[in-house]
Structures
1.
Amino acid sequence: MSEQPKGKVIIVVAPSGSGKTTIARMLLEEMDKVRFSVSATTRPARPGEKHGVDYFFLSEEEFDRKINDGGFLEWEYYNGKRYGTLRSEVDKLMEMGYFPLLDIEVKGALNVKRMYGSQSLAVFIQPPSLEELERRLAGRGTEDEQTLASRLKLARKEMQYADRFDHTVVNDELEEAFQQVKQIVELFIADKP
Ligand code: ADP
Ligand code: 5GP
């Protein structure tokens, strides 16, 4: 990519079920300079998820149009659905003086890191074990049996990417993991520009 990005971005990356959304929400609640960058996806909304808050839920056609319009900073397939970081979200948050927080999968995270280099921070949230990850995913109750199985298969692969990111935090005890992530993010933000 030849573009010269401005500003800094924070990425939380993890296999599905590790707890990255939980940790990201805690960060957003405590850090007023950090704001969630709402992605677009073609997967259906889960109960309770809101359009424009959790994701922009797009049809395949709408997603294609966004790609053609150059609307994505990056986008990837995950478990048969498409997910993409919207340039409009990241730009809007930066213009407002916030640090965008991206909750994205490993390939997208590597691409954003390639674009932003030292202007990006990627924290990999690791589950204590694959067994615990399976328990958490099943316990969340959002996936049917087939999606659960394919997410677990993907998780095994994604775990191998941990050392490609800036920091790894094991999410065993939630509060402890959150404090570690918060400290890492605070240091990154304080380090100007
Ligand atoms: P992800 O965004 O990585 O897919 P979630 O944040 O949705 O994962 O977490 C998956 C499930 O695990 C949720 O039900 C969440 O409440 C639970 N969870 C998250 N962190 C912990 C933890 N440290 N210990 C036990 N359960 C956790
Ligand atoms: P979920 O369906 O559980 O919400 O998300 C599935 C995976 O897609 C998660 O790893 C999540 O972080 C990732 N994801 C969400 N938004 C984006 C995005 O904009 N780009 C990429 N590459 N991945 C995303």
2.
Amino acid sequence: MRGRLISLEGGEGAGKSTLLAGLREHFDRGGLDIVYAREPGGTPVGEAIRTLVLDPAHRGMAVETELLLMFAARAQLVREVLRPALAAGRWVLCDRFTDASYAYQGGGRGVEPARIAELEYLATGGLTPDLTLLLDLPVAHGRARASQRGDSSDRIEVERDDFFERVRAAYLARAGAEPERFRVLDASRPADEVLLDARAAVDGLRGGVAT
Ligand code: Z5A
């Protein structure tokens, strides 16, 4: 039986890394063998692309280049990690997937969704998550959290608030269009509450096995 693909999405500082750590602990406790991946990245080729695409030195990167690099990393991840894991019946938890391209390059940068869909088919063959957990919170809240981490901003994080407002709107529009796949979580709540909801959604997908 094919495994399941779960993706985590959200704007800057929404708490994806925090949630991922909590879910990981939950799965480990249940003795579940989960494959973890992240985008852009998750393979040696993908991690090299991540370094390139997020490097603030490349301020002049064209929108099309950014889009193609995201999908180049994704194509590699799908071929090298996701397809083999799913075919072997394993479950995969991926920190971002194709929805991020529709939100950031589509909503944020203004690329036509139809153009993105062409690349999606090429890179993923139409592979879609079984469940997408969207961490939603106001842009200013997420940015304040991210700035508290004290690390330096990458090439996308330096964008202005209106960019991230469009990203958020694009995510919510996608969630509204596919309510059966998305679970929108109010990420402004304490991390343990967000984790409880996320666990319930994932366990629901497992038919209650991972309780
Ligand atoms: N990108 C793209 O443009 N197109 C694509 O197709 C793809 C990606 C795949 C890298 O993503 C960038 O790539 C990203 C989108 C773009 N650019 N941006 N901006 P990333 O996922 O690696 O990085 P990120 O989006 O910048 O995530 P992040 O800023 O690292 O945030 P996070 O993982 O969602 O948050 P966190 O580190 O878990 O939490 C941030 C802080 O808040 C931290 O101090 C936590 O302790 C705290 N926190 C977390 N949750 C809570 C709660 N619930 N309450 C209070 N405090 C909390």
